[in-house]
Amino acid sequence: MSLHNAASLNPKFAILDHVRFENTPEGLTHIVVKTPKAEATIYTHGAHLTQWNPVGQHPGIYLSPKSALEPGKAIRGGIPVLFPWFGPRSDGKEGPMHGFARISEWNVESTHFSPEGVVTITLSLEADDHTRSLGFDKFRAAIQFEIGEHLDITFEVTNHGSEDLVFEEGLHTYFAVGDITKVATEGLEGTTYLDKRDDLKRKVQTTQLLEYTRDVDQVHLNTTAALTIHDDAWKREIHIEKQGSNTTVTWNPWSVLSPGLPDLDPESWKHFVCVETVNVSENKITLAPGATHRMDSNVRITAKA
Ligand SMILES: O=P(O)(O)OC[C@H]1O[C@H](O)[C@H](O)[C@@H](O)[C@@H]1O
């Protein structure tokens, strides 16, 4: 029996009323999480969180209704885990967009429900035939989700090889928003970014608020700053603190690029903003043999006065 099947996972990891595993009709397995403060769904495919709904609030995370949810395909929305490269592979070798982590099957390590009502789920990924064929043999990645009123994620990579492990990584979070035209991200003022819409030209974010008035695809380098997404249509603020991440990417395809993304509805772009906790480009990680790198993202949502 597959290790990733609900029938084998439930006896080991289900927690009555809080955590259960289900097989989907499309052939994947997901984890249904319920806490007094939130509901969430995580697929073992990609260790991909597709839903985080704090009780009594608008959804925290956006999932495209047209997303593929099947083996071998990337999920559109939620929190894609990007590793070991970001975007197209850059060293001239073959490999899937944004790395193999988001299309790999992850192992469930543990589940836990705390007296405070927080569910913690940990998944891991190690080398398999596919990763070895791409040149990644001796690594371990692990991701921990703490799900409650807040969403806290820890992503760790360990180098089990005898040479440096060089990689990029990212939590490509699609935050749900009421209306992208009334959204602004704060916390990037003064940073230098690579503008992917403009031949990767280096530019400086000159304003306090980064507003979304057209398609945006920006890689902000050398920034560890906390961020606030002002989601005015839903009268709330989404706060993101991060550790171990030196790059922030923000992306929205707008009406311009959406027609090229068949797993988005024509109007989907209005309802999410990607603000991504990452280490990419000149902030990529070089990990010595035996070392572990950790990156954290802590999300909380507050009502706007
Ligand atoms: O369509 P995907 O492979 O999921 O990538 C979606 C987007 O991810 C990141 O935000 C990149 O900066 C974008 O250039 C890319 O288009």
Automatic annotation (TrEMBL):
Species assigned in the record: Terriglobus saanensis (strain ATCC BAA-1853 / DSM 23119 / SP1PR4)
Active-site residue numbers: 172, 276
InterPro entries membership: Aldose_1/G6P_1-epimerase, G6P_1-epimerase, Gal_mutarotase_sf_dom, GH-type_carb-bd
GO molecular function list: carbohydrate binding; glucose-6-phosphate 1-epimerase activity
Protein name: Putative glucose-6-phosphate 1-epimerase
Transmembrane segments: none
Enzyme class, spelled out: isomerase
Family recorded in the similarity comment: Belongs to the glucose-6-phosphate 1-epimerase family.
GO annotation terms (biological process): carbohydrate metabolic process
Reactions it catalyzes: alpha-D-glucose 6-phosphate = beta-D-glucose 6-phosphate
Domain of life of the source: Bacteria
Keyword match Isomerase: yes
Entry EC no(s): 5.1.3.15
Keyword set, alphabetical order: Isomerase
